[in-house]
């Protein structure tokens, strides 16, 4: 982009009087003629305006993040300090969660969670359910819900399932994905979700 592109001139008279000579003083500005008004606007002015707009936008974003931090925080760490959960775990609603990247049967997944002072995940609120379903997507993840006696569904800590959400299927161990909570045979190898309260 050359300097001729950055200058704007306005002519109040399109036809100078006859007998006047036209001379060019510089390539970026047109020559002044009697009866004409020429106002050059250099690129520097446009750059200053552009940079000022950028600074204002950055300040507005910073103020918004300061006043409404929950709207700008990472979705995996909302409602909690970043340091509340160990590496590879994330915080949500006063719990630490671990999402596996490998598969195991239900019992082995529960043992893994126990080794980390956790259990297979409890889903004890609608907010947790919505969040976890969105997070795991279509992949099937074990949660801490099991039917050991064929009649009563219980969480990993022994609490009886209160039918807070719909559970489908006719097997003994439950998994969660984006469609809901479904039971399947406990020996199946699936991903899993561990959960534990903040320390």
UniProtKB/TrEMBL annotation:
Residue ranges occupied by any C-type lectin domain in the UniProt entry: 92-195
The organism of origin for this protein: Panthera tigris altaica
Upper classification of the organism: Eukaryota, Metazoa, Chordata, Craniata, Vertebrata
Record region (Disordered): 1-29
GO terms for cellular component: plasma membrane; protein-containing complex
Protein name: CD69 molecule
Record localization: Cell membrane
Transmembrane annotation, as ranges: 39-61
Protein's UniProt keywords contain Transmembrane helix: yes
Predominant location category: membrane
InterPro entries linked: C-type_lectin-like, C-type_lectin-like/link_sf, C-type_lectin/matrix_domain, CTDL_fold, NKR-like_CTLD
Keyword line: Lectin, Membrane, Transmembrane, Transmembrane helix
GO molecular function: carbohydrate binding; identical protein binding; molecular sequestering activity; transmembrane signaling receptor activity
PANTHER family to which the protein is assigned, alphabetical: C-TYPE LECTIN DOMAIN-CONTAINING PROTEIN 180, EARLY ACTIVATION ANTIGEN CD69
GO BP term, pick one: negative regulation of T cell migration
Membrane topology of the entry: Single-pass type II membrane protein
Pfam families in alphabetical order: Lectin_C
Top-level taxon in the UniProt lineage: Eukaryota
């Amino acid at each position: 982009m050359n300097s001729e592109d950055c200058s704007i001139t306005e002519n109040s008279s399109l036809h100078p009087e006859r007998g006047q000579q036209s001379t060019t003083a510089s390539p970026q500005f047109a020559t002044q003629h009697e009866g004409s008004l020429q106002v050059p606007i250099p690129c520097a002015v446009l750059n200053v305006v552009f940079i000022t707009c950028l600074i204002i936008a950055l300040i507005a974003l910073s103020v918004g993040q300061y006043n409404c931090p929950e709207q700008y925080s990472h979705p995996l760490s909302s409602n909690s300090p970043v340091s509340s959960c160990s590496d590879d775990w994330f915080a949500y609603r006063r719990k630490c969660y671990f999402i596996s990247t490998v598969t195991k049967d239900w019992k082995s997944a529960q043992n893994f969670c126990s080794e980390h002072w956790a259990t297979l995940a409890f889903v004890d609120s609608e907010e947790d359910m919505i969040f976890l379903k969105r997070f795991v997507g279509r992949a099937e993840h074990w949660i801490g819900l099991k039917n050991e006696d064929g009649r009563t569904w219980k969480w990993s800590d022994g609490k009886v399932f209160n039918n807070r959400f719909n559970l489908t299927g006719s097997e003994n161990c439950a998994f969660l994905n984006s469609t809901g909570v479904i039971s399947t045979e406990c020996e199946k190898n699936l991903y899993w979700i561990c959960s534990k309260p903040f320390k």
